[in-house]
Amino acid sequence: MTFRLLNINELESTILSTCGAKTVLKKITCSISLIVSLSMAKQKIVVLSGAGMSAESGIKTFRDADGLWEGHDVMEVASPEGWARNKELVLDFYNQRRAQLKEVKPNPGHFTIAKLEEHYDVMVITQNVDDLHERAGSNNIIHLHGELRSIRSVKNPTIKQYHEGDIKLGDFAPDGGQWRPDIVWFGEAVPELERSIPHVMEADIIIIIGTSLQVYPAAGLIQYAYKAKQVYYIDPKPKSNYELDRTANLKVIEAGAVEGMSLVYDELVS
Ligand SMILES: NC(=O)c1ccc[n+]([C@@H]2O[C@H](COP(=O)([O-])OP(=O)(O)OC[C@H]3O[C@@H](n4cnc5c(N)ncnc54)[C@H](O)[C@@H]3O)[C@@H](O)[C@H]2O)c1
To answer: Which of 18, 30, 125, 226 is paired with 77 by a 20 to 30 Å CA distance?
Structure first.
């Protein structure tokens, strides 16, 4: 259903064309049913997920391990400088992360988010590079920081393709550029940010889950929650940042993703 502003004459002709209503009583009945159908349009939920979302699936978070990502200094494996220093190490790191996807499964928290689509218009904006939201059945997902199952040319970020196996030094894209992981590294632009902001602005409800709120601009997205009547933040060790401290209607749920999503689902769907 699309919404637009109508003046009174347009409203009258909408009622006439929708219900063919000519008498006053029929017009009133028609107006009521139009209002009811408008109010039945699904409310919009935006889920902002981070590494903690996948912790109960067995994928390690980043900051829980003293700033190391699977034993590596993050600047070694997730920055253009690290890439320039040691391409083989970086390729190998992401080859391992990609291979790990075959050993892990979405957890009940991922499935609960997908199930919300039965009742709400749901958009998942994730910092995660795994594919667990997809495999749980969520249909609308933005990967702010890229995806493990996508690779791109070092010469041209728009030359990309779906990829399951390893990438080796000397594997080239059609433009002759070395293939690299299609991951947004520290210091690189976040092209999906622009597409994400309007979703946060339109959200009636926001669920922030499993993020330490340290990586910007993702951590600042909550500042665009202009109309959200409820914001949930689920994390067993909740953090804060400048934007969250200024968020209205915030409810912090100190729990893991599975338990926290179950509580939020019961509240939203009861
Ligand atoms: N699964 C992945 O794709 C993955 C994994 C590690 C890191 N990363 C990348 O590293 C960056 C890390 O930033 P971040 O804020 O997403 O993660 P982070 O590691 O900085 O923070 C993780 C948060 O998850 C919380 N957490 C731990 N266990 C949890 C659970 N069971 N349920 C819910 N929350 C739990 C922690 O308390 C912490 O606040 C991101 O940019 C992301 O792309 C991705």
So the answer is: 125
